[in-house]
Amino acid sequence: MENGPIGAFPDAPTLRGLKHVEELQRVLQQGYKAYVLFVAQSAQMQVGTIHRQMQPALYDAFKQGLTKGLQVLCYNCLITPQSIQLLKEIPFDLDAPFIDPNARIGGS
């Protein structure tokens, strides 16, 4: 999901994603390196984050994983009818101020 230059994962709760991050934490405890790769499907995205309001448990799992050495890579890309081209690595900022563009303001 994107809002301006910030892209946030997930756009819907994901038990599978949470399970993967928890598994990566166990791998880190065994002394291995662990990475998550996000490919933001927009050339305009300049930072990636976790959609904390969508899934607080996933945010917490990433926060804990980052303290244990989890590496997160984000790339934006250019999509055309013929191709998908990675453009550049963009920062992953767990605390980027993401506002869900689909959230209803004032509960209406």
| Radius of gyration, in angstroms, nearest whole number | 15 Å
Which residues form runs of ≥5 with pLDDT under 50? none
Mean pLDDT: 93
Helix content: 25-40%
SSE sequence, one letter per element: EEHEEHEE
Which structural category fits the helices and strands? alpha/beta
CATH class: Alpha Beta
What kind of oligomer do you see? single chain
Side-by-side strand order of the widest sheet: 1-2-4
CATH architecture: 3-Layer(aba) Sandwich
Q: How many domains in all?
A: 1
Principal-axes shape call: globular
What does this structure look like?
There is one protein chain. With 108 residues, the chain is of the alpha/beta class. It has one domain (2-97): 3-Layer(aba) Sandwich (Trna Endonuclease, Chain: A, domain 1). It is 26% helix and 30% strand. The chain has two helices and six strands; from the N terminus they run E-E-H-E-E-H-E-E. It has helices at 15-29, 56-68, and strands spanning 2-3, 6-9, 35-40, 47-50, 71-79, 84-90. The strands form two sheets. The chain has a three-stranded mixed sheet. It has a three-stranded mixed sheet with strand order 3-5-6, with no helix packed on it. Strand 5 and strand 6 (84-90) form a beta hairpin. Helix 1 runs parallel beside helix 2. The longest helix is centred in the first third of the chain and has 15 residues, at 15-29. The mean pLDDT is 93.
Q: Keywords for this structure?
A:
Trna Endonuclease, Chain: A, domain 1, 30% strand, globular, 108 residues, 6 strands, 26% helix, three-stranded mixed β-sheet, alpha/beta
